[in-house]
Amino acid sequence: MKAALKFLALSAALSASAHAAGVTLTMDCGSGTGFQICKDGAEAWAKKTGNTVKMFESPNLTNDHLGVIQQQLAAKSSDIDVYMLDIIWPGLVGDQLVDLTNKVPAAEINAHFKGIVEANKLNGKLVAIPWFTDAGLLYYRTDLMKKYGYSAPPKTWAELATMAKKVQDGEQKANKSFTGFVFQGKNYEGLTCDALEWLVSFGGGTIVDSSGKITVNNASAAKALDTAASWVKTISPAGVTTYAEEDARGIFQSGNAMFMRNWPYAWSLGQSDDSKVKGMIGAAPLPSGGGPGAATLGGWNLGINTYSKNQAAALDLIRYLAGPAEQKRRAIEGSFQPTIMSLYKDQAVLKANPFFSSLYSVFTNAVARPSGPTKGKYNQVSQAFSTAVNDVLTGKSKGQAAVAQLATNLARIKGSGW
User: Fold this and answer.
1) Angle, helix 157-171 to helix 219-231, in steps of 10 degrees
2) Which CATH number, 3.30.565.10, 1.10.3720.10, 3.40.190.10, 3.50.50.60, labels domain 2-127+298-364?
3) Contact indicator for 134, 88 with CB cutoff of 8 Å
4) pTM for the full model?
5) pLDDT below 50 — which residues of the chain?
6) How many helices (H) and strands (E) does the chain have?
């Protein structure tokens, strides 16, 4: 929350585009690697329409980003017109977003994956439109696969551990910084995503099932967490328990890791001219622990602040940004995964992102976090889960004790109902 307050205090330092005509909008453009490509798209719309768009650079961590939005909405602030929204947020802030039902033509909405559209509805109202989607992937070094005699990426977590250890031991003879596997182990929403993949892949469920029942207290879930903890200080550095997406990507892209769990955006950055592993990266489905391999559904969407004084212009902006031309540009330039189904047959998109085609089923079958059944309490559920997982990763707890205590904590959060 301190980070959220800090960024609110700094909101006066928004970076404005150079256009000065018509309506002036302020857009939440995220942060980090996606900020500039978002800004480019918004400024293209501004140039086309004669309007002005100012960019708000939100906190990098999703938890802090959400805090900023919630504080603004609680204050009924009109400072930011357009929000970028995590796929899990409609139930948390959707009641203070403009209802887009009948404001966006049905043909435009129907071009997107149906499941993502449904995730952007709250009580039957469409509160955001899909912008880009996400699913967890396993990245690996193709050159080191060949060097160490491997013909295919690991299909199980046990295989990953074996392969990562062999390559790590070999590479550390010349590079002491080399590690086998990096992922998101920091106590935040990113760890919830990683750990949900572990649970599902071991047959341990989704924390809370679709009916709202707390299911996390089971032996398979405990085994999944203990397995992940076994990676720390063996095939993963001790510091992995503090890593977010960019920490993991920095290590992998600098040539210091064999495997990495991350989102599709990391592909284009790994192929950039300043990447030490350019041309030596593969992407595959995440491994299985005995159950079905799983990728957590991510992705971001665009909604309009109900307190915005320029809702008509804001609607035009989000329709442009979520449209096929802009989604195509973002896919080619930044590996942002489209939500428009037809773009998965676009040759320019597939040339830039060959794994979009081969891993299409990973994206379309991604596992949703339990934001639907837990509604407005999802944030508390996620925080309790990521804290329990981080405790196991750091050796403060064992898997079985952690899931048992977590179930008790979740029951307390649930109270008389979600």
Assistant:
1) 10
2) 3.40.190.10
3) no
4) 0.89
5) 1-20
6) 20, 12
